[in-house]
Amino acid sequence: MRIEKRQGYEGTGPGAITPDGCAVELYARLPVGSEPDIITAAVPPAARILELGCGVGRMTHPLLELGFAVTAVDESAEMLEHVRGVRTVHSTIEDLDLGETFDVVMLASFLVHAGDLRVRRALLDTCARHVTGDGCVLIQREGLDWHSDVPRERVDPAGFVARILSADPVGDGVDSVRAEYVFPDATWTQTFLSRPLTRAEFEEALGEAGLRVDRYLTDDGMWVRAVKG
Fold it and tell me: For 21-54, b where at least 16 C-beta lie within 10 A, e where not — what string?
């Protein structure tokens, strides 16, 4: 399956670049972070998890080691080549229909902020379609002032610098965001479209898909546990 590059999304740097501008080698280098701990605290042990947009398996592999049964979905075949030990599905999230449901559906990487409203609705519909009646959807949101606090940078203990260089309005409430990742031996950039969402707007978007917030999992509100109803 060949997936076309997404309009408004670009990436530069060594190695393969995905349709949404992500560099495969970059994501293979990024550390795991605290996400597996957040997920583990929010879901039942040994739950069946559908991970939408798994990338190279940065969260997939730790979740597998923690005893979860993961089905990992990504639109990039190059990303999926790095994923080991779990069932993988090569598909866009918007078009996914596996004909089965899962205890947990994960939509991380700020995908809920897709610039195209049709894409966002399709992403959330996919989440709702694949979660069991008593299951949950875990969603990662952008942080407060994420688009206005620019430029900014973070020096990671792993030895690289992550920068958000700009977030420029392009119309209809959407920003074109440019990010840069600088390692001692390589630099990658990514440009993508993102729609800022207030908490009320986010909860309204969930409601359109038949979902509602069960609870916010982190103090900054960036990780959310949603349920049907």
Answer: bbbbbbbebeeeeebbebbbebbeeebbbbbbbb
Domain that holds residue 96: 17-143+195-228
CB 25, CB 14: distance < 8 Å = yes
**pLDDT tens-place string over residues 69-78:** 999 999 999 9
Q: What is the rounded CA–CA span in Å between residue 126 and residue 142? A: 20
CATH number of the domain residue 26 falls in: 3.40.50.150
Query: Would you state the pLDDT for residue 1?
Result: 63
Residue 89 belongs to some domain of the structure: yes
Q: Is 152 helix (H, G, I), strand (E, B) or coil?
A: strand
110 in the same domain as 81: yes
Within a domain: 11: no
Are residue 100 and residue 204 in the same domain, yes or no? yes
46 is a domain residue:
yes
**201: phi then psi, degrees, rounded to nearest 5:** -65, -40
Residue with tokens 């897709």: 114
Residue 163 belongs to a domain: yes
pLDDT single digits (tens) 131-160: 999 999 999 999 999 999 999 999 999 999
Single-letter amino acid code for the residue at 1: M
